[in-house]
Amino acid sequence: MARTVSSQRKIVNTVLAWTIGVLIFFPILWTVLTSFKTEAEAIASPPSLLFFDWTFENYREVQVRSDYFKHFMNSVVISFGSTLLGLLIAIPAAWAMAFAPTPKTKDVLMWMLSTKMMPAVGVLVPMYLLFRNTGLLDTRIGLVMILTLINLPIIIWMLYTYFKEIPGEILEAARMDGASLAKEIVYVLTPMAVPGIASTLLLNIILAWNEAFWTLNLTASKAAPLTAFIASYSSPEGLFYAKLSAASTMAIAPILILGWFSQKQLVRGLTFGAVK
Amino acid sequence: MGSITLKNVSKVFGAHTVIPSIDLAIDNGEFVVFVGPSGCGKSTLLRLIAGLEDVSGGQIVIDGKDATDLPPAKRRLSMVFQSYALYPHMSVRSNIAFPLKMAGEDKSAIDRKVEDAARVLNLTDYLDRKPRQLSGGQRQRVAIGRAIVRQPAAFLFDEPLSNLDAALRVNMRLEISQLHQQLKTTMVYVTHDQVEAMTMADKIVVLNKGNVEQVGSPLELYRRPANLFVAGFIGSPRMNFITGEIARGYSAHTVGVRPEHIDLSTSTGAWRGTVGVAEHLGSDTFLHVAVDGVGTLTARVGGDFPVKHGDQVYLSPQEGRVQRFNEEGLAIR
Amino acid sequence: MATLHTRSAARLMMAPSVLLLLAWMVVPLAMTVYFSFLRYNLLMPGMEEWAGFDNYKYFLTDPAFFQAIFNTLAIVLGVLFITVLGGIGLALLLDQPMFGQGIVRILVIAPFLIMPTVAALVWKNMFMNPVNGLFAYLAKSVGLQPFDFLNNAPLMSIILIVAWQWLPFATLILLTALQSLDEEQKEAAQMDGAGAWSRFVYLTLPHLSRAITVVILIQTIFLLSVFAEILVTTNGGPGTQSTNLTFLVYAQALLQFDVGGASAGGIIAVILANIVAFFLMRMIGKTLEA
């Protein structure tokens, strides 16, 4: 705006926005705070906001009693594994579609995106049976495979849009300079595409970490990632709010931080570029 | 070393034929310019020579060897792109060194050649900068440096000056011409600007809709255009074309005479007309004259000639400077 | 751009993705279709027999099915209503000049980054629990009876939880679209005498319409298959009051081990999703043209 906004209006906006923001964020804040309370404090009435005896015992107990670390590692392995595998398969495909397009390229891309829209429930039965009969049930590798498949369309799509932003002439220059296809990809394309690849990596780790269908149905105890582990808290076993809060805080912290840095990528990836 | 021959080369994109068939011979050491309006196929032709596009038919022979199926890397050509196409993540030094690195040369040889190229192009102070820190003209020189360093059989330029402002363009034109004198390597240069073509070329290839209209030296094209298209394309301002009775008087369907070949007088002459717009450049004045029974003709006079809008003048074409064209638009000699 | 060399290389480079996705699309789906025509229960293996369309008949005439369809639509429409309207409002607010906009954005985005199981449990235990929850405390402190959300209004509770999670998504998308509205257009409208409301109705809303459509379509795709939140809070209950189609199929497959029935249900879910996907793909297709 060319005219300066009155600072009075700015203050009103600020108060309104911050109030709503805090309200929306409150459940998360509450969870984090509760994680530092004793169980008794956690269900105390009236509930205390900041002034209570802060303690770390919940964090300790969660790890000791339920081997939290193992589930955390499962989440890490599954998220990173499926993302890296996905990138490996997707980068060549995205290259091909961005730099050597054919009249059919657009259709193929659309078809790939459409595979993401198939409801998981439609193939729950065969996948469960398949996993059971091949011994993939409750294994990390099984989950990596299936998460790679469901996220592959988004990875390809995001890489495609980033690759398209690289001027084709620069790759042609590399060709004229004597680079073979492999060298062209390694020395010129990849360095220029690093920001795009990083964004895609970020977004996909978030999606894989939070996936809550296959991770719930295809795991039991060995390969269960954090999503399933937290779900096991749904049947109450006595007073446990504080421990639940501790487990939850640890489960969501990495992604919260990651996600705060990836807002632009989230928009691009999840709207399939329909909104810029 | 540096001769390129095109035999019956054609290019089709889907249902659209961009180049029907072209035969062309480029000799070693020549500065050849492909010129023509937008969409005439000149860039496509250059890219076919470079190997960035496949020919749909015909042969491309480089230095006596059939290069039609060779990938760009193996043709020993260098290309300077319109947008310079520098590698943004590499320094100027690495940009220029890249082709040598791809060729597998050893570090000391690379360093030496890069320094040499940088010296020739006045880039020595910028070797460690990144492209985004350079001006347009400097980037242009880096692109040229990258092309030189490979010592190719021929240089290919794809409208390299289009992205520069007018003053810079004039300077770079001179620099490229000087480079050609120095290196004596074949250069194939694409532009839509006929001034660049005229000033830089040994040989000009005028293209229109994928066809070669004429091949010749600049002066040849200027003095003896083969058809209406070339006559109207070369020379600025454009040649005047007259049909009808006056043309019949010269035994032709259309006659053409360049603005600079028309004599003006306020008292007597072949054609009478009224001055419309007068464009004063200081050294010259271009008059747009509405001639009775013919239409508007453009004539050039010295900057001091005293005419203004509405004046009556007489135009006379200079002897021997009238070009004659038949019904098909071909020149009658 | 492409030559023979690059084109054949390109085909090779696309092959793994295309083949994998093709297999992923065709094989399991074909198996589901096959199973849907069998009478197959995991508790009685080896007794499968051809059942024709029986599974479909049972599934489609099961009162639980109608409840599930209704619940599915209720969840989708309920969440859409809250998130689209809330999203527009929040986006408009965040587009205003203020202090600390970056931090407010972070606060507003957070729910979307929480895994569904955590979100659901936090709401279930800490807010909605009629004994220990915060809502119960608030009610008691003003003298009201605490409301047992999950037992008495299971569907509404689920809608609330899911809407909380998706509001950031809608807000982010709409805010991005809002910020791409040309500043000069707004100024031209002011010159033309348009007040704030007119500017909103005639400039902002039309500009946002595309983003709103995208939000609706994409959210619908994901909302049709809400699962974790239901599993972890109400387990579809009480009875089937909060069971949606996804949960119904899950229950039939992994709780009742009725492979045949669950497969039929799965196919129906696929058909439903395809209808939505059709419109979404058209929308995306138009983007690719641009």
Report on the architecture of this protein.
The complex is a heterotrimer of chains A (276), B (333) and C (290). With 276 residues, chain A is an all-alpha fold. Helix content of chain A is 71%, strand content 0%. Chain A has helices spanning 7-34, 39-42, 57-66, 68-99, 105-115, 124-133, 140-164, 168-176, 181-210, 214-217, 226-231, 241-260, 263-270. In chain A, α4 crosses α9 (181-210), α7 crosses α9 and α8 packs antiparallel against α9 (181-210). In chain A, 52% of the residues are buried. The model of chain A has no long low-confidence stretch (mean pLDDT 85). Chain B is α+β, with helices and mostly antiparallel strands and 333 residues long. Chain B is 27% helix and 32% strand. Chain B has helices at residues 42-50, 92-102, 107-120, 136-148, 166-183, 194-200, 218-223, 228-233, 245-249; strands spanning 4-13, 16-26, 31-35, 57-62, 65-66, 77-80, 154-158, 186-191, 203-208, 211-216, 240-243, 254-257, 262-265, 271-280, 284-291, 295-302, 312-317, 323-325. In chain B, strands 6-7-8-3-9-10 form a six-stranded mixed sheet, sandwiched between helices. A five-stranded antiparallel sheet of chain B has the order 13-17-14-15-16, with no helix packed on it. In chain B, β4 (57-62) and β5 (65-66) form a beta hairpin. In chain B, α2 (92-102) crosses α3 (107-120), α2 runs parallel beside α4 (136-148) and α3 crosses α4 (136-148). The model of chain B has no long low-confidence stretch (mean pLDDT 90). Chain C is 77% helix and 1% strand. Chain C contains 13 helices and two strands, in the order αββαααααααααααα. In chain C, α2 crosses α13 (259-289), α4 crosses α8 and α8 (154-179) packs across α10 (196-223). Chain C is globular, with a radius of gyration of 24 Å. Chains in contact: A-B, A-C, B-C.
